[in-house]
Write a structure and sequence with these properties.
Length: 162
């Protein structure tokens, strides 16, 4: 995982109110993060899986979105999904999305603009522009009974019924 991706995450941290920026694959694994929240393996696996399941449910209902934002007790969690961003790992290039933890009053237009500008700059980097993906992982793969608790499963079933 390259220096260019680390610089990209550091650009996100320059926005007032942003606490953490992370790149997560569509299996829910945190691949790279920067900021005050450094997740341990158990927390990152649970959080990553939950976020990917949320993205998959949103896709199921509304189609693929660019951003999903949620408010929680300590701030805001924003996932920028449709970035077409790849990161090189020991297992080959993987598609990732950007996850940002911030205070609730972060300036969303500034955040979105910073993501677009930093992403454009990142995609021009030689180490990133030549990456090609072999296998695409779809978020809906995590919407299986064995990966969800009872409440989440009932929620997805209710959505699928209409």
């Amino acid at each position: 995982m390259g220096k260019a991706h680390e610089i990209f995450l550091q650009d996100m941290l320059r926005i007032q109110g942003v606490k953490t920026a992370a790149l997560v694959n569509f299996r829910g694994e945190f691949l790279l993060s920067a900021g005050v929240f450094t997740p341990n393996a158990q927390i990152s696996n649970q959080l990553g899986t939950c976020i990917v399941q949320l993205i998959a449910t949103a896709e199921y209902v509304r189609g693929r979105s660019e951003e999903v934002t949620m408010l929680y007790s300590e701030g805001r969690l924003s996932a920028f999904i449709n970035l077409d961003l790849l990161i090189d790992t020991p297992y080959g290039a993987q598609e990732v999305f950007l996850l940002i933890l911030s205070s609730a009053n972060v300036n969303l237009p500034t955040l979105r603009m910073t993501v677009k500008v930093a992403l454009s700059k990142l995609k021009l980097d030689k180490s990133v522009r030549d990456l090609r993906i072999n296998v695409r992982v779809y978020p809906q793969n995590l919407l299986t009974r064995d990966r969800m608790d009872e409440t989440s499963w009932q929620f997805v079933e209710a959505i699928s019924r209409g």
